[in-house]
Amino acid sequence: SSDLTTAAAQAGAANAKLRIGTMDGVFKMQTNPEAVALAKKVGLAGVQVTLGRPKAGESTMSLENRELQKAWVAASKQHDVPLNSTYLDVLHQDCLKDSDAAMTWVRKGIIVTKNLGAPVLMMVFFGKCQVLQRREFDRVVGLSRELAAEPEKAGVILGFENTSSGADNR
């Protein structure tokens, strides 16, 4: 029995490979495709791409720029480091729980995430955008249900990054 356990553990260890990625912002390179080369250099297995907030008076995120998208995809291929997710940081400013603009950002984020070939769009709920009250929770759930078909059709998963309880997330 102990031989079987040891063999199973060794087989599992031989097949197990911990892979770690990071967000471009960790390198202080938000929206900069050069983050991919740095991730490769330090041995990381993936990069989360920050989509960028619009500049004052503008209505587009940095990564809506098709040339910048192409640069990210090219860097990913060149360095063999996947773009494993995107980060919709504009939701720190336009909260899904109370901003009508937030739905537009999410819809744009879905398109950009698809264009980058990343499987996950991370939506954020921190600080002033944290969902604390029942009415906020109900709004976010309702809007998420309204959106559900769009990321599914695009082959994108919506991720909810927050500090809420497991029960609230379910």
Short recap of the structure:
With 170 residues, the protein is an alpha/beta fold. The chain has helices at residues 2-15, 34-41, 66-79, 101-116, 134-147, 149-154, 166-169, and strands at residues 21-23, 46-50, 83-88, 120-125, 157-162.
**How far is the N terminus from the C terminus?**
39 Å
Cα-based radius of gyration, to the nearest Å: 19 Å
Query: What is the strand content?
Result: 15-25%
Broad structural category: alpha/beta
Could you state the order of secondary-structure elements as H and E? HEHEHEHEHHEH
Strand order of the largest sheet: 1-2-3-4-5
Global geometry: globular
Tally of DSSP β-strands:
5
The largest β sheet comes out as: 5 strands, parallel
Task: Determine the mean pLDDT.
Answer: 89
Assign a percent range to the helix content: 40-55%
Task: Name the poorly predicted regions.
Answer: 4-9
User: Helix count?
Assistant: 7
Oligomer: single chain
Structure description:
With 170 residues, the chain is of the alpha/beta class. The chain is 45% helix and 15% strand. The protein contains 7 helices and 5 strands, in the order H-E-H-E-H-E-H-E-H-H-E-H. Strand 2 (46-50), helix 3 and strand 3 form a beta-alpha-beta unit. Helix 2 runs parallel beside helix 3 (66-79). The longest helix has 16 residues, at 101-116. The termini are far apart. Mean pLDDT is 89; it is low at 4-9.
